Amino acid sequence: MALLQVSTEDTCFLFRLNRIGLCPAIIRLLETTDVRKIGLSWHDDIASLHKRGEFSPKGFFELQEHMKELGIEDMSLAKLYANLFGERISKREQLSNWDNDVLTDKQKGYAATDAWACIRLYKEYLRLKETNDYELVVVPEPEPAEASTEAE
């Protein structure tokens, strides 16, 4: 893991772990229960973080696990966001080189949006859980179109 994104509702901090490693301040953040860390696929991220240094993870909230409580099955960030807010998040920069000496503005924007979207999903999860104001609609996958076998 080359980058750690930490976001509030209006500010995102990008920590270049490939440059600074797990410094004591980041380890304190990862170990505190005073700050809830909201995200998806924490298991993989925590495993990657452990490759950079030892810490005892605390205060992590796994969105995928909790969205299942609402009956939601699509678990990627883009699908969760689209399903709950009807808006698309571009994942174009996801596979770019995060070890570059300098991140592009597009990379920084993607990373910040990724972290901010998790906060927005978390707040919506809490609202839906509290109000029960939702209806789960399962949309079946479209049947694959049959290829034409007739000669034209």
Task: Describe the structure in your own words.
The protein is mainly alpha-helical and 152 residues long. Helix content is 43%, strand content 11%. The chain contains six helices and four strands; from the N terminus they run ββααβαβααα. It has helices spanning 17-20, 24-31, 42-52, 63-69, 77-85, 105-131, and strands spanning 3-7, 12-16, 37-39, 60-62. It has a two-stranded antiparallel sheet. A two-stranded parallel ribbon has the order 3-4. Helix 5 (77-85) crosses helix 6 (105-131). The longest helix has 27 residues, at 105-131.
Topology of this protein?
Elements lengths: L2 E5 L4 E5 H4 L3 H8 L5 E3 L2 H11 L7 E3 H7 L7 H9 L19 H27 L21
Parallel strand pairs: 3-4
Antiparallel strand pairs: 1-2
Helix pairs in contact: 5-6
Write a concise synopsis of the structure shown.
This protein is mostly helical and 152 residues long. The chain is built from six helices and four strands, in the order E-E-H-H-E-H-E-H-H-H.
Q: Can you tell me the overall shape?
A: globular
What is the helix tally? 6
Largest sheet: 2 strands, antiparallel
Strand order of the largest sheet: 1-2
Distance between the termini: 53 Å
Tell me the fraction of residues in β-strands, as a range: 5-15%
Structural class: mainly alpha
Radius of gyration: 19 Å
Percent helix, as a range, is: 40-55%
Would you tell me the overall average pLDDT?
Answer: 86
Return residue spans where pLDDT drops below 50 for at least 5 consecutive residues. none
Give the H and E element order.
Answer: EEHHEHEHHH
Number of strands: 4
